[in-house]
Give the backbone structure.
Amino acid sequence: MKILILGADGFVGRHVKTALLPIHEVYGASNRASETEGTHHLDLLNKATIAKVLTSLQPDIIINCAGVVDNSEKAQLNPIMTSNLLEEIVVSGLKLKRIIISGSAAEYGIVRPTDIPVNEDVPLNASSGYGLSKAQETRLALEFKHNQNLPIVIARIFNPIGAGMHPRFLIPSIISQVRAIEEGQGDTIELSGLSPKRDYINIKDVSSAIKAIVEGNPKETIYNIGSGKSTSNGELVEIILKNSKLDTRPRILETSKQDEPLIAIQADITRVREEFGWEPITTIEATIKEIMHVTKQ
């Protein structure tokens, strides 16, 4: 199949492309694309560039891994970019086999204790700017699916981690602080708190789940992609310290006194497991070791 991956130079897009390349005819597109073979310039805020790539490639499947992954005002661009893409798909008249949109666990927002682990039917209650933008993006995509009969599937990704992830995120931040202590440049690890939990999933497992959706015949519209396990910040610190060179335990400073409201800290992955036979295979411990090995180089 001919597959077009948007945001192909991003953390998720790079790994999805790698997972699909051995079997499929895969093309990447990005607004920062160089003129390298198989990579196309496509700006989701510029409909003309979308139309040009769609007309040129005539893909069978489109996977949108592009987007703004932070809580700044720029996150408001997420639904706009997806709307532009879907509008141009309609205008093009392309008969696509599948359109996969990358969703986020942040869409669920604050949940009830009885909703943990969170399944795909839990109402969206996003509270962050990023979560609100992704929830709006999902609602918009579902409208296109209903009104224009587009073959849209939402891959609702929890917290993807792995080598090459952005240094601003929690795990690289803790590792960076530990490295500084190893080099005698500090004695304290600072983080908001030890108790908050998240469902972390190795980026290669995310890619294999998306590959399963590409190659399968989805019966549903939304699939959670997570590890199905919940890991606290304190557990992350312990794993990182265990794999560090430190002989003595550094001071841990929690910078927030407030308890975090309950959010989607654990994914129910029953749907994607039962339908596609997909399972995450990489543990949080193995993933952190990989990140630490790469950041050491």
